């Protein structure tokens, strides 16, 4: 917002110096203040549109470039492009409303980039943060649950996230089977834990049919 306002002041001031003498000769001094306000408002809207278009274009181009590197197996180059896209997303080029709209698909792509490479750093950083806001993403949830169990098991700090994932996937027994062990260890009897126990129980074959 500060960059946009300063750009509006600079370009609006330059346009005022150029246009207002002509406007004063045509309409007189009485309408001069209104003309200045309209000119600055127009500059503000145009600059915002240009920033938004430039930012969206750069992010889209970087995501396409990263996808190409992924297909070619160039993980480091793809990661660099994604990081640059995140930098553009957090810059003054993208207004807050547009940022929220672009953040979700970019986060989804980043999550899949990390699970395709079984990135251990992302397993304890980016992916849990992503799943906290998007527990319904079944592919990422399954990966995180299974990988976390294989690499040392769940920790106390995972309780809330595990409950979110359990509630988001009540019928996914691949997820519920893993979480049920965690909930049993914690001796939990709340709704997410009971849903996991129920799914595991229903998934067991009757006696004599194993």
Task: Spell out the blueprint of helices and strands.
Layout: H1 2-27, H2 32-71, H3 75-89, H4 96-116, H5 120-123, H6 126-133, H7 138-150, H8 159-168, H9 173-186, H10 191-203
Helix pairs in contact: 1-2, 2-3, 2-4, 3-4, 7-9, 8-9, 8-10, 9-10
Explained architecture:
This protein is mainly α and 210 residues long. It contains 10 helices and no strands. The chain has helices at 2-27, 32-71, 75-89, 96-116, 120-123, 126-133, 138-150, 159-168, 173-186, 191-203. α1 packs antiparallel against α2, α2 (32-71) runs parallel beside α4 (96-116) and α3 runs antiparallel to α4. The longest helix has 40 residues, at 32-71. It is elongated and about 85 Å long. The termini are far apart. The relative contact order is 0.06. Residues 205-210 have low confidence and may be disordered.
Q: Which percent range describes the beta-strand content?
A: under 5%
As residue ranges, the low-confidence spans are 205-210
Number of strands: 0
Q: What's the helix-strand series?
A: HHHHHHHHHH
Determine the structural class based on helices, strands and strand pairing: mainly alpha
Number of helices: 10
Report how far the terminal alpha carbons are from each other.
Answer: 65 Å
Shape: elongated
Radius of gyration (CA) equals 27 Å
Please estimate the helix content: over 70%
- Major sheet details: none
Report the mean per-residue pLDDT as an integer: 80
Put the structure in a nutshell.
The chain has 210 residues and is mostly helical.
């Amino acid at each position: 917002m500060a960059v946009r306002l300063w750009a509006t002041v600079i370009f609006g001031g330059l346009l005022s110096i150029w246009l207002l003498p002509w406007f004063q000769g045509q309409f007189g001094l009485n309408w001069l203040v209104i003309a200045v306000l309209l000119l600055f408002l127009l500059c503000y809207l145009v600059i915002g549109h240009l920033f938004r278009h430039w930012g969206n274009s750069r992010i889209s181009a970087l995501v396409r470039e990263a996808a190409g590197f992924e297909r070619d197996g160039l993980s480091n180059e793809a990661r660099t492009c994604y990081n640059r896209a995140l930098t553009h997303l957090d810059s003054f080029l993208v207004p807050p409303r547009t940022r929220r709209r672009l953040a979700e698909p970019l986060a989804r792509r980043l999550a899949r980039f990390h699970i395709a490479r079984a990135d251990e750093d992302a397993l304890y950083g980016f992916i849990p943060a992503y799943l906290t806001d998007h527990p319904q993403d079944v592919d990422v949830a399954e990966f995180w649950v299974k990988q976390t169990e294989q690499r040392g098991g769940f920790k106390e700090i995972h309780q809330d996230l595990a409950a979110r994932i359990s509630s988001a996937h009540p019928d996914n027994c691949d997820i519920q089977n893993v979480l049920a062990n965690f909930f049993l260890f914690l001796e939990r009897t709340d709704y997410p834990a009971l849903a996991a126990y129920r799914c595991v129980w229903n998934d067991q074959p009757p006696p004599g049919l194993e």
